[in-house]
Structure formats: C-alpha cells, structure tokens
Amino acid sequence: MVSWTAFIWVDQPSASAADSTAQLFGEPGALAQRALLEHASEAVLKDVTSRYYDNKQLAEHMHSFAKRCSTIARTFSLGKSVEGQDMWVLEISDHPGEVEAKPNVKYVANMHGDEPSGRQLLLGLAEWLCIHHATDERAKRIVTEMHLYLLPTINPDGFTHKRRENSGKRDLNRDYPDPIHPPETGLAVSGAEQPETQAVMKWTLGTHFVAGASMHEGAIVANYPWDGSTDQATQYSKSPDDATFKHLASVYADAHRSMHASKQFAGGITNGAAWYPVFGGMQDWNYLAGGCLELTLELSEDKWPAEERLPQLWQDNLPALLAFPIAAALGGLRGFVHEAPPGTEAGRKLLKAAPQGKPLPATISVQGIDFNVSASATFGDYYRPLAPGQYTVTASMDGYAPATQVVTVPADNIGKAVKHADDLLPAPRLREPAAPSSPVDTTWADLMQRAMLLVIGIPLMGLGVLQLVRLVRYVGHRGNTARRVPAR
Q1: φ, ψ at 54 (rounded to 5°)
Q2: Which terminus of the chain, N or C, has fewer Cβ atoms within 10 Å?
Q3: Burial tier of 438 (Cβ tally within 10 Å: 0-12, 13-18, 19+)
Q4: Which H helix or E strand runs over 101?
Q5: Distances, alpha carbon 293 to alpha carbons 12, 219, 278, 470, 475, in Å
Q6: Transmembrane ranges (predicted)?
Q7: Is the distance from CB of 97 to CB of 74 less than 8 angstroms?
Q8: Cα–Cα–Cα angle for 159, 164, 166, nearest 5°?
Q9: Cα dist from 324 to 300, 317, 327, 329, 431, whole Å
Q10: Half-sphere exposure of 101 (CA within 13 A, CB side)
C-alpha cells in the first residue's frame, strides 16, 4: 500500500459585520439608513407575530418583504391550490435566486388549514433575519452559508375555510406516496396527488434540500421518522438515520423554551410511529424520495392558537428556529468531491483556496448507516447531517478509486473552524483495487503515474467536518453508485 500525505484547505474569512452593512446600505449615511430600516422592521416584526394575516395579506407582505430586504430575499410561487391561490415561498440568502455550493433548508407551515401559527412564525423569522443578519452570528450564518426557504402555507384553501383538508377534501399529510408501503407508481409524482402536494413534491425533487421541518399544532413536540411501520402498529419505527434524526429533534426541543421539558414526551421528541402511525405523510417521503431529513414540529396544544398567544409562541420558538438549520445543514459532514488533476504535487501544503478539478457527483456513504447522499454535479459539494460521533465515510463513483476517511463530528453546533495543521485528519491510504473484469495492460507503477488520491479536511467544532475529496480515476475500477435504501 502507498501512503499519501493530506493537504489542508483553509476557509477564507467571512466579511465583517461592517462590510456586510456597507454592502447592504452603501457607504453614505449607511448607519442612518440601517437605523431607519431596523426601526421599521421591528414594527413589522411585532405586527406579524401578533396577529393572523389572511392569504391576501400574507402574499402582499411577502412581496413587500422581498423589496425591503431585496439583497437577501426573493419570492416565488410553487404553484396554485385547488381554488387557484398561489403558494408563495420566500428564499433567504445573500445571493437569492443563484445556484451556489451551499446547502438548502426549508421550513413549511399550514399544511393543515386549521393549524395556522406557523404562517406567522415564518414571516417573523424572515423579518428577524433581515434585521439581524449583519450583527447576529446565527443570522449571519443562515444568510451567508445556506439558502433558507420559507413556505408559510401549503394549504391556503384550508386556511380560508378553517378546516384541516384542502378544497379537494384531502388531508395533505396523507397524500404522498408512502415509502414504507409504496404504490406501483413508486415515489415520483403520479398526478393522482392533490395540486398542493404535486407542487411541493416537484419543488423538493428539483431542489436538493439537506433538511427541513413542517410546522403543525396539536401538541408540543419534535417528531421524527419513521412515521409509519411495516406492520402498521403503534411502535418505534427506526429509520437508517435514527441517531441523526433524534439529534436534530433534540436540537430544536432543547432550544425551545419549554418543549424539552415535556411531561408527555421524553426530552420533547418522539418517533412518529411510536406516537401514532401516519402513512402517506410528507416527512417520510421527503427523507426517502428527496434525501431531505425532515422533522414535524408540533408547536401548540391548541389547533388554532388565539392571536394573543402568538407573541409568546414567537419568543418560545425563535432560538429553535435558528438552531435547527445551522445544526442540520452545517453541523454534520460537508465538503466537496473533485477529480484529482494529473501531476498534483504531493506533500503537506497550505492552500488559500480549494484545488481545482472536475466536480464529481460522487456517492457519500457512512459505514453503519444504510442511506447515502450524493455530491452535486455542478460543484461537487455535499452535505451529510450526522449526530455527534466518529464515522467512517467513503466517497465513491463509477470509474474512480474510492476515498475512505474516519472523521469525528463534534457535539458543539456553533461551527467554529479550526485551522491548525495538528488538527489535520489522518492521511488516507490508497488500497490496491480488485482485479478488473478484463485484463488491463498496465503496471502498478504506470497506474500511479496517472492517478493520485488527495483528501483535504478541516475538523469543524460543532459544524462537523469540512472535507475536499479528490478521487482518482484509474483503468478497470467500477464503483457502486446506487443509493442504498432500507428494505421496507
């Protein structure tokens, strides 16, 4: 076996709060303009978290917000409800509308028409991020390091009529192809789903969401997959990412004012099927069909909380609404997979930017977890939510030598990068490949002249581990790129 020395890739420092302010408001009178905007936004924030907006007011507010905070927001419609009402989405990012090497996270609400508080909470979250993204580290990280999508109402018709179902008389959280008992058409959009469901499915399948959460009412708990079980019994139904789901649910519950202290649910979290089984739900479908680790957040014991309770609901949930996307999108394993260019210099070297090479849509597998994620074809970036712990992770792709690394995901979710050589992950070893299916006229020395394996990484406190994996193409090797799924 031949040992290769790893490289360190140091992140570039982010812009300072002053730079962000200048960029947002321009140099002349920047502080005065900011003061005016903050004053106006604080008044709007108080309003959106104090009363319910009807669908017209909701749409008008979202469009107004996208104009007021245009440097970090845009709005678009996913599609229309049965009655023709638009399903508006807010995207929050320092580059809204652009495709970047950043994770995507979503919050959705009002799936059941008679569970409306999430509508106002998501409007409040957008306002808070607009006000604080230049000064608050949590807000800054959400705005600059990911794309956060907010869908305040999946079921605008149900809200209008104050009923659970949509105008097609369908419970939208029973309208998805069930991954545990899949229909003959599989998990893709079949056309039999309600218009609202089809719109969310197409959006999810067309956008690589790393994680998400759906807001409901009827209890106070963070619910995680599986929602169903193979025998349809009320019992714990463990998904491949059970440990990660429990961790993410606990992140939300622990940051919530009272959820973690629940007397009904230990730690304020529950497995869905252990509470009561749900089939055809969005949560399980998101995980298996979309690769999106999604929670169901039950935020109030009352189905339609009185308006006077909204300010307290907002205060109860704000820290959790900030903690979840950071932990889910940035708190596990993330990085890039690129092809190693020929003639790359070996040895330890400090790089100011990631070495360039062809991005590869490699499969990222974690030993012991029967569920894989893929790097993007555009940038080669990947995001793998994981609970704190040590993992053996492999990047593989057909025609390339796999790269395997043991990594540690720390428990601190703040995400401070450690940039010291002593913190470099152990250097990997290149294993001799299995014999090819047909003879290849090449020697091991010739092969090594053509290819090199580099693994570049930084352990990140709480953020987890940021890696750049350079895969080696060589003759005769074929890796398995199929996503493994549980046998359910």
Answers
A1: -75, 175
A2: N
A3: exposed
A4: none
A5: 29, 21, 17, 26, 36
A6: 451-469
A7: yes
A8: 70
A9: 18, 11, 5, 8, 38
A10: 18
Please provide the distance, in angstroms rounded to a whole number, between the alpha carbons at the two ends of the chain: 39
pLDDT in tens, 405-449: 888 888 877 543 322 222 223 333 333 333 444 433 434 333 333
Residue with tokens 């000064």: 135
Q: How far is it, in rounded angstroms, from Cα 242 to Cα 254?
A: 18
Query: For 11-25, what is each residue's pLDDT tens digit?
Result: 332 333 333 333 333
Residue 223: both structure tokens together: 């619910």
35: CB partners within 8 A, 6+ apart: none
β strands within 352-444, DSSP E: 363-366, 369-374, 381-384, 389-396, 400-401, 403-409, 416-417, 429-430
CA atoms within 13 A on the CB side of 476: 14
Tell how strand 219-224 and strand 269-271 pair up. Answer: parallel
Least confident of 25-39, 182-196, 262-276: 25-39
User: Active-site residue numbers?
Assistant: 298
CB atoms within 10 A of CB 433: 15
- Identify residue 378 by its one-letter amino acid code: T
- Domains of the chain are 2-12+332-473 (2.60.40.1120), 49-330 (3.40.630.10)
Residue with tokens 């790393």: 210
Q: What is the mean pLDDT of the chain?
A: 80
